[in-house]
Amino acid sequence: MSDQALAGVRVLLGVSGGIAAYKAAELVRRLRDAGADVRVVLTANAARFVTALTFQALSGNPVRSSLWDESAEAAMGHIELARWADEVLIAPASADLLARLAHGHADDLLTTLCLASAAPLSVAPAMNQQMWAHAATQANLATLRARGVRVFGPAAGSQACGEVGSGRLLEAGELVAELAAARAPRVLAGSKVLVNAGPTYEDIDPVRFIGNRSSGRMGFAIAEAAAQAGATVTLVAGPVSLATPPGVTRVDVRSAREMRAAVLARAGEADVFVAAAAVADFRPQAALPQKFKKGGAALELTLVENPDVLAEVAALPRRPFTVGFAAETQDVEAHARAKLERKGLDLIAANEVGAGRGFEAADNALLLLWPHGGREHLPRADKRELARALVARIAQLRADANGDPA
Predict the structure, then answer these.
(1) N or C: where does the chain have the smaller number of CB atoms within 10 Å of the terminal CB?
(2) Is 161 considered catalytic here?
(3) pTM value > 0.85
């Protein structure tokens, strides 16, 4: 993300009640560092956690909290503020605030502004993990998403209440990156993108399988980034518990052969294929029909190779722009470059795995390689940020190949 990714953008920041409200102060600073002009609106409950004076000092603008501020409302100040905004961002967005937005309430200044503004609306939820998982909250979010509201986060981790799970507010830098990405040019508009993600499971018997440690986060982030870039995206997902990114069509599979069938059925219509899945290289020759019981004897398995989904797509007569991944433990660039050339790929994203890198991690670092010596290093960052950078590189390489202007 550039240092001035939001230069000149007028951001109306709404802060709702909750302990995460203190993080909004840092968010104001980061938004201004990114070039944004920021005005803050506090709900009554937010003002119990943080003061208007703090946000006034950080934003350089007066802070509003009430519809009944006579000096501001003498000239319909809330309408003026609604028209001023290029972006409306609510961070943190409490469960109560999300519910009121979903049902069209206008019972305080912030919800009234959301109804009165034509600016895009983004919300960054923050709440107890059980409140986040509740069916009512998820239904409200589905309603908001259907109306075009962007939802940033939440993250998972330890919470102020002592519980652990999803519901943490994204960090200030992540929120700025999300807002900047949402405003970025739709560089894949009109394109069809096919992504596979996650592990595959190869059954040994009805209860055991051969698998790997892929979380699927990178592939899901790529699918999300491609959709944000304007593409029509299909995601073929191995067995993971991640939520489907907004605007993405998901196909769930379990084994490598199921993934191959799902990908090949769609690859012919795709303009881009990103093979982010960690497809198992081998499977048991035959799965046992019943659960294997321990009895002191060794269990011997005969393993056979699984199909190479990436190579098959790259060899199609009418193939999409084909992107592979290389997860390596040593000599990363050499092995990735060899895989790029051997399979005839258009681009490969290489990363070092092990010791907290790559698999089962929220962040990563990528080395992008393409034919004729092309090379770009993406330093360690959140996987969603890396995914956006990868999508931008894909769009640029396709434009170069087609002779389009950058």
Answers:
(1) C
(2) yes
(3) no
- Report yes or no on 291 lying in a domain: yes
Residues 346 and 241 reside in one and the same domain = yes
Task: Domain of residue 339: give its range.
Answer: 192-402
Residues 142-155, mean pLDDT to the nearest whole number: 92
Q: What percent of the chain has pLDDT over 70?
A: 94
CA distances from 357 to 200, 348, 353, 376, 384 (A): 20, 18, 5, 19, 15
Domain assignment present for 161: yes
Catalytic residue among 7, 76, 146, 161: 161
Residue 1 lies in a domain: no
Name, in order, each residue with C-beta under 8 angstroms of 178's C-beta and a sequence gap of 6 or more.
122, 124, 150, 152, 153, 170, 384
Between residues 361 and 402, the one the model is more confident about: 402
Per the CB < 8 A criterion, the answer to whether 271 and 264 are in contact is no
CB 214 within 8 A of CB 238: yes
Nearest alpha carbon to residue 234 among 242, 244, 243: 244
For residues 17-46, average pLDDT? 94
Residues 55 and 151 in one domain: yes
Peptide bond into 185 cis (omega under 30): no
Residue 4 lies in a domain: no
- Could you tell me the two tokens for 101? 């937005």
The Cα–Cα gap between 397 and 403 comes to: 10
pLDDT at position 352 over 50: yes
Between CA 400 and CA 379 the distance in angstroms is 24
Q: Please tell me whether residues 163 and 205 are part of one structural domain.
A: no
Specify the DSSP class assigned to residue 22. Answer: G
Alpha carbon distances (Å) from 89 to 47, 85, 113, 152: 17, 10, 11, 10
